[in-house]
Amino acid sequence: TKIFADRIGRIEVSATMAVTAEAAKLRAQGAKLVDFGAGEPHFATPRHIKDAAIKAIDENFTRYTVVSGIPEVRKAIVERHTADFGSNYTPEEAVFTTGGKLAIFNAIQVLVDHGDEVILPVPYWVSYKDIIQYGGGKVVYLETDEAENFRVTADAIEKAITPRTKAIILNSPSNPTGSVIAPADLERIVKLAHERGIYLLLDECYVYLQYTGALVSGGSFTDAKEHIIVLGSLSKTYAMTGWRAGFALGPKPIIAAMSKLQSQSTSSTAHFVQKAAITALSSSQECVAEMRADYLKLRDRILARLAEIPGITCTKPEGAFYVYPNVSAYLGKPGAKTAMELAGRLLNEAHVVSVPGEAFGTNNHIRLSYAVSHDDVEEGVKRMKDFFAKLS
Ligand code: PLP
């Protein structure tokens, strides 16, 4: 008899797992790795946020809460969003989730039915396709142009829409490329989705890590609110990845359905995490600006160093904390036929952790996270340069 349900067969373990496991093995053997693999801030969670959680635990905020998050945390989410982006959400249009990933998962599960199409730009963050497939949806991949900085355009989206299109997922700034959708294109995409009755799922977990111009959120298009779902996270903004704190903003019935799903799975996030999130969202945002300023310096540093490696080209990220260099000049050689093999050798021979582009739907790249120290950027790219010199 069959053990597993069909739905679990529709997803794979994250493609980054193989590299992570290999890196752990080397580390256990005492290797000093430079880790450009992990997609998380190298900063500690700011002191005032940690203090808020400690205080909350001491005061016994350690029980279940309402599933969608206590009213104060939902208020803090919408007030932060209104202040920063001019949106007009109410607390009933917000749900607090156990990480941004759960917000994405729940939004897709409540919207996407068998056979529904979801448009997903490539390169994509690893989990979207699996989450869509888990829900029975059909992923419609939308290629972007590296020469255009992998930018998603309204024209391309329009061409990909069919009568079966239920939703579009956008991730700006993007993981893995750091690409940001041009404001004019975002406006046109919002209009298009609204007119056609298609849901726009905006994964904005890097929204505060934009380096050019003003910070932009799709949630500020209040006229099209009916079709917009903002998926947010405190993970990257406040260096809180392990706290599991995320949220969604959207139409009341969709938020209610997401809460219903949550009520039969995770229930609420820890009460003291919600308390800490209120502090993060409603106190001074100076820590966010400070971290952003350092990421920008790190970006410029890693781009400058990578440019010194012959044959490697790299688009200039406008946000997030990843670079996505094109390594095709070094591919096809024995032992380095694919980016996957190249990343394996880079790890084993140079002790540099990267994630091969296959994980994000492209074949000629590796992803490097520069949420590391400046010393690690210098050391890691130096090792890469020596490794590639020997390879060529
Ligand atoms: N979306 C993107 C694009 C990400 O890179 C990540 C984390 O790496 C997430 C969502 C999920 O973040 P979290 O679940 O920690 O909020």
Characterization of this structure:
With 392 residues, the protein is α/β, with parallel strands linked by helices. It has 2 domains: 6-44 and 287-391, Aspartate Aminotransferase, domain 1; 61-282, Aspartate Aminotransferase, domain 2 (3-Layer(aba) Sandwich), CATH 3.40.640. Helix 3 packs antiparallel against helix 10 (271-282), helix 5 (100-111) runs parallel beside helix 6 and helix 7 (154-160) packs parallel to helix 8 (183-196). The termini are far apart. The protein has a 7-stranded mixed β-sheet, sandwiched between helices. The chain has a 3-stranded antiparallel β-sheet with strand order 9-12-11. It has a two-stranded parallel ribbon with strand order 1-10. The chain has helices at 6-9, 17-28, 47-58, 71-85, 100-111, 127-134, 154-160, 183-196, 252-263, 271-282, 286-306, 339-350, 374-391; strands at residues 34-35, 94-97, 117-122, 138-143, 165-171, 199-203, 228-233, 246-249, 322-323, 352-353, 355-356, 366-369. The protein has 13 helices and 12 strands. The longest helix has 21 residues, at 286-306. The model has no long low-confidence stretch (mean pLDDT 95). Helix 6 links the parallel strand 3 (117-122) and strand 4 (138-143). Pyridoxal-5'-phosphate (PLP) binds at residues 39, 99-101, 125, 171, 175, 203, 205, 233, 235, 241, 246.
